[in-house]
Amino acid sequence: MSFQWSPPTKKIVIASDIPRFKRSIGYKNLNLAIASILEKIKGIDIPKGYLDPKIVTRELDVTEVAPKLELPAPEKDKSAETNAATNIIQLLNDIDKITDSTPPLTGPRRFGNMASRTWHDKLQGQARGLLVNWVPKPSSLEDNDFSQFLDELQYYFVNSFGSKIRLDYGTGHELSFLAFLGALDRFKVVPFSEIKGVDILIIFARYYDVVRRLIVEYTLEPAGSHGAWGLDDHFHLIYILGAAQFNNVTAGSAPTVKSVLTSQVMEQYKEHNLYVNAIAFIHRIKKGPFYEHSSFLYDIHTTVYQWEKVLKGLLKMYEDDVFSKFPVVQHFWFGGVLYPWRDMDTNEELPTSEAEEKAETVLPGMINGGTGIRTTPSNISMTRVPWAKPPGR
Fold first, then answer.
1. How many CB atoms neighbour CB 44 within 10 A?
2. 327 in Cβ contact with 383 (< 8 Å)
């Protein structure tokens, strides 16, 4: 097979480019990755010991380095699927070691510790070597193709951990990690159809612990957050994954939707389910009544009664608030093979906008992109939870 590799470049320059994005093979590949992952993880718990409870517990020091965990013994010796998952776990462990060696700078600062830029410089310098160490060459690729595969893959990998320029982390970076894993699936490095669903969940668990440590230690600003009027300051995909875990389970083996906000359920499931774990992290970093600082999530758990409906609604909201939002997808770039800017029906190259990209001069920590305008429900682009109603209405 002949591959037309090219390093990822910016294609979504203005908001009117989003319909083109929705016609692209890149968009199709992202959706295929989501569907493949969800099919494997429904009804599956994360084994105890893989999600670090310190990350989601306010009383403890989350900057303490957690012991590195190994995958459980495989059912079959030298199982291909366990080895594939282990490689990515080790890759993420090496990312965590960069944090170990890059302490935050001292001194008061609400958002964006400047040590984060040093961290990103280290990541950029080490990224290629890390990928070579832990991503085996797919059998379908020759040596030259493998090198170009890594060229494309590296963009999505590096972009999975936040922005050096803006000192933030958000759903666009979470999307890049999905793209990274989707590419590994496509070339059978981490084949979703062959490995166990629990291995996929363990990979995501390790990723989320790594990035949440970055958020806490470097006080990273939420990228594109809607504040109290959004689902979550930093994440969205994690809720989809966790809701899928609660789907297709035997009666009584999953908590009710309403009970998830209770402390008893959080303690029971925060190390086993990504949805509950994400809510526990909110309690770790925010204070005050939950219905005030996380009104969307509160709406879900007071108006929806089936996990199947929660999952369906979250997927629709992901389409509206991630794939359809220019501030998010403008940072998703397109290469020649992994996520091409080509029409999914005709395979023709899609047109690109003539508009020039504005230089990124946003100062970290400034509200609403540094404009000085306070964010309110009336001046942000937002999509209310499509399946829930506000209490009392």
1. 19
2. no
Residue 392: how many CA atoms within 13 Å on its side-chain side? 2
Return the higher-pLDDT residue of 258 and 251: 258
End-to-end CA distance of the chain: 58
Question: How many residues are there in the chain?
Answer: 393
CA 260/CA 267 separation, integer angstroms: 10
- Is residue 208 within 8 A of residue 277, CB to CB? The reply is yes
CATH topology of domain 13-60+81-330: Four Helix Bundle (Hemerythrin (Met), subunit A) (1.20.120)
Instruction: Give the whole-angstrom CA distance, residue 13 versus residue 114.
Output: 28
Cα–Cα dist 230/224, whole Å: 10
51: buried, middle or exposed (CB in 10 Å: 19+, 13-18, 0-12)?
buried
Q: Chain-centre distance of CA 292, in angstroms?
A: 24
Can you tell me the mean pLDDT for 240-249? 93
Continuous H helices in the chain:
18-22, 25-41, 80-100, 115-134, 143-158, 171-186, 197-217, 237-245, 263-269, 274-285, 290-293, 295-303, 307-318, 326-329
User: For the chain, which residues make up each domain, given as ranges?
Assistant: 13-60+81-330
Q: Model confidence over 159-199: pLDDT tens digits?
A: 999 999 999 999 999 999 999 999 999 999 999 999 999 99
